[in-house]
Amino acid sequence: MLKRVLEPEVMDCPEEAREYDEMDHEAVNRQFVDDLLAGGEVRGDLLDLGTGTALIPIELCQRVEECRIMAVDLSTEMLDLARYRLEIAGVTHRIQLEHIDGKATPFPDAMFDLVISNSIVHHIPEPKLLLREAVRVTKPGGRLFFRDLFRPDSEDELRRLVETHVADQSATQQKLFADSLRAALTVEEVQDIVASLGFARETVRQTSDRHWTWDALRPE
Fold first, then answer.
1. How far, CA to CA in Å, does 119 sit from each of 35, 93, 123?
2. How distant, in Å, are the alpha carbons of 10, 51, 214 from that of 48?
């Protein structure tokens, strides 16, 4: 098993933010929203932790009418790009962007009907802090839907994933993806965290050759 190698928690370099934004996330984002919608009705007040350039909130608003989204990120560069994308998509009235640390938000307990996050957990040195905060701000009976990369077993597997998914992208984008894989948790590590927060381990499962998904309801 590869040792976890942390990458910077905040992508606040303009060049890296642009490189990330220019990567082809369309299929992954669409699958995220497909799976989110397949698991139950989406409506009310949503929180997106680590929204990046807000591609998933935009996709969600284009497909669901009855939701309002608070989208937060710790990277000002990402949020600047997100504001531009919201304007282009015409959804500024439904998505609010805020510069907030997802590990320690200012929101009151049980504020949101749904808390989502895509590909932020691997950036966090202590991911339990993020997941615990997500649980805190979710209403009893509300839903948590997180997805991220998981760490491969070996360098050979890591290289295979890079070749499979980003071989046609720039060297910088390939390095970003490889670094993210090295920084990711294993499925078992995520299961350990959610179990420590009072959730069943089986609410976390592998959902692709490189992703895990945590889909759970906060107990009433």
1. 15, 25, 8
2. 16, 6, 14
Instruction: Write out the CATH class of domain 14-217.
Output: alpha beta
Cα–Cα separations (whole angstroms), residue 174 to 5, 70, 189, 211: 16, 30, 25, 17
Picking from 147, 151, 150, the residue whose alpha carbon sits closest to that of residue 215 is: 147
**CA–CA gap between residue 149 and residue 185 (Å, rounded):** 7
Q: Which DSSP state fits 25?
A: -
Region class of 60: left (phi > 0), else alpha (psi between -120 and 50), else beta: alpha
pLDDT at 133: 98
* pLDDT class of 1 with cuts at 50, 70, 90: confident
Domain map of the chain by residue range?
A: 14-217
* Residue tagged 């669409």 (tokens): 30
The residue ranking higher by pLDDT, 18 or 173, is 173
* Separation between Cα atoms, residue 116 and residue 130, nearest integer Å: 12
The per-residue pLDDT for range 22-71, each reduced to its tens digit, is 666 788 999 999 999 999 999 999 999 999 999 999 999 999 988 999 99
d(CA 73, CA 53): 9
Is residue 132 within 8 Å of 190, Cβ to Cβ? no
The model's pTM = 0.94
* Residue 213 one-letter amino acid: T
pLDDT tens digit sequence for 166-186: 999 999 889 999 999 999 999
